[in-house]
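Q: What would this complex look like in 3D?
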Amino acid sequence: MPSSFPRVAVLVGSLRAGSVNRRLARALAALAADRLAFAFVEIGDLPLYNDDLWTDAGGPAPVERFKAQVAAADAVLLVTPEYNRAVPGLLGNALDWGSRPQGKSSWAGKAAACIGASPGAIGTAAAQVHLKAQMVTLGMIVMGHPEFYLSFKPEDFGPDGTVVNDQTAAFMNAYADAFARHVARLSSGK
Ligand SMILES: Cc1cc2nc3c(=O)[nH]c(=O)nc-3n(C[C@H](O)[C@H](O)[C@H](O)COP(=O)(O)O)c2cc1C
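A: Here is my prediction, written as structure tokens for the whole assembly.
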């Protein structure tokens, strides 16, 4: 049965099988499943952005599929690794495809947030500064607070992907609540 919860399109900026960001996103999706319906959107099959790939019929098939999946969602969650203090090209490429054709952006007016994890101490804070600025420019209605920077510790996550560190689980729960409120506020026009 389809869920009646707000639909959140989740874009993960890593293709690695062992991605800590994907593990984080899955754990948050499981934890928030009683409030939000997360749908993971594939971005690894999008070609590198090239204006020439648009035709009168539209974009390449993966781009059309990607834009349709984002359009069907009430909100967007970007899950970013930090590469060289910035956002990985994979995620930037997806944002670029979504932003075109002009006047048909996938992002304008979408409720949105970003989170990220890295093994380092600052947990993607530097990358998210760039990403949030770009999200605002793209017209997303970005949840600024709470911020979500995770210094990833493998021992905090169980083999089934659940969060086993109580403090981390409590923070993730509070974050899911705040994001659900952000999405609801926008849906109700308040
Ligand atoms: C090209 C590259 C650049 C990186 N730069 C940073 C960085 O600036 N800050 C950081 O905390 N970690 C950096 N890392 C380490 C990543 O945080 C780490 O590989 C992380 O696991 C990537 O996310 P993923 O597991 O979801 O793929 C970098 C990794 C790569 C491959």
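A: To summarize the key features: The chain has a mean pLDDT of 96. The chain has one domain: 7-187.
Q: Very helpful, thank you.
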